[in-house]
Each structure stands twice: as structure tokens, then as C-alpha cells.
Design a protein that fits this description.
Radius of gyration: 20 Å
Strand content: under 5%
Helix content: 55-70%
Low-confidence stretches: 6-14, 121-129
Mean pLDDT: 80
Largest sheet: none
Number of helices: 9
């Protein structure tokens, strides 16, 4: 039985990817918006914005990311990229509702003020995650699609069968003619790569 999986060279990942975002690399920016744009849109819609306003808010959020990306890169204590992105989106949502509230006050309305008060003060993946589980699964799937081409088929299958299909490691090892340790290593490598793609760990 084979005891290992080969390691094709990986593409530039999280740290270099975020640095390319900072440098306004068009491909890196496209990758960023493809990955996180739908999530920002979801946040905006969940907080009551129309599709048109949600699209405008997305542009505001990513413009702010361009300005502040250096701060995220040099502040590892800030947590996940998703959490940092939510902080920016939350502030932009508040700005939007403050503007709307001022307009409504002149007309005697209060809806924007109520929306403003509903936006959470903090982000916590454990306790105040305002993202639907379904949206997080979609984010994970988008990241999977982006990194899939970087791995050999057997490596990917070891990850997929143990992590997505939740199959027993020893069964997967037998099916793929790998040692159980190699299956665990393959799973770990893909998960680590996914975290880098999501901006949640550095290289």
C-alpha cells in the first residue's frame, strides 16, 4: 500500500493573495470579490437593504478594504478575515442607515433608526455570528472551487471523503491505497489551504 500522496506545488495563497489585493492586482481583487462579494451582499440584504442598495454597499465595503487592507495584514490579533470584513460592512451599514434616518426625520419616519439599532456592536464567530449557516456553506463551497485545481485527485478525494462525506479514515485509506496517516495529512493540507484562501491564517 502506498503511504503518501504527492504534493503538487500550490498557487500563491493567503498572505501573497492579500498582498496582491493591497497592490490592486486585478486578478486578486476578482478572487476577493468572487469569494466574499456574495457574503457582503447577504449581510446587506439581511439588514434590510434593497438589492440596489446592497450592491452599492458592496462597492463601499470593498473600497474600504482597499484602504484598510494593510492594517489587517499587520494586525494578526484581529482574527479572521471574515470577521474583519464584517466590521467594515457593519460600519457601512450604520452609515447607510444614519443617512436614511436623517432623511426620514425630516419626513417624520423612524424605520431607518430601528434598523440602525439592530446592527450588532461586535462580531464573534462563536456568539454573534449574524451569517446564515447556509451562507457560510456557500462561502466554503466557493473557496473549495478556487483551490480544487491545486491538488492531485487522490489528495482531494482523501479530503473530500473524510471531511465532506464524513467517511471513516481507515475505509478511505483502503479505497485510495493510502496509509491512514497519509489520508489525515491530505485532509489537513487541504483544510489549511482553505483557511489560507479564506484569509484566516498566514503562510
Amino acid at each position: 500500500m502506498s503511504t503518501s500522496v504527492s504534493r503538487p506545488s500550490e498557487n500563491r495563497t493567503s498572505t501573497s493573495w492579500l498582498l496582491r489585493v493591497k497592490a490592486r492586482d486585478p486578478q486578486a481583487w476578482q478572487r476577493l470579490t468572487d469569494l466574499y462579494g456574495p457574503l457582503v451582499f447577504h449581510w446587506a440584504r439581511r439588514h434590510g437593504l434593497s438589492p440596489e442598495d446592497a450592491g452599492d454597499l458592496m462597492q463601499e465595503v470593498f473600497s474600504a478594504v482597499a484602504v484598510a487592507i494593510d492594517r489587517f495584514l499587520h494586525s494578526p490579533g484581529q482574527g479572521t478575515f471574515r470577521g474583519w470584513l464584517w466590521t467594515i460592512a457593519r460600519n457601512k451599514l450604520r452609515d447607510h442607515y444614519r443617512r436614511s434616518s436623517h432623511r426620514e426625520e425630516a419626513a417624520g419616519g423612524t424605520e431607518a433608526g430601528l434598523r440602525l439599532s439592530s446592527i450588532p456592536e461586535i462580531w464573534s464567530d462563536e456568539s454573534v455570528d449574524i451569517t446564515d449557516r447556509n451562507e457560510l456553506q456557500k462561502l466554503f463551497r466557493r473557496a473549495l472551487d478556487l483551490v480544487r485545481c491545486e491538488f492531485e485527485e487522490r489528495t482531494w478525494q482523501a479530503f473530500w471523503r473524510t471531511t465532506i462525506e464524513m467517511r471513516d479514515t481507515s475505509d478511505v485509506a483502503a479505497e485510495l491505497s493510502l496509509s491512514t496517516n497519509s489520508v489525515r495529512q491530505a485532509k489537513s493540507r487541504v483544510l489549511r489551504r482553505l483557511r489560507r484562501e479564506l484569509g484566516d491564517v498566514s503562510e
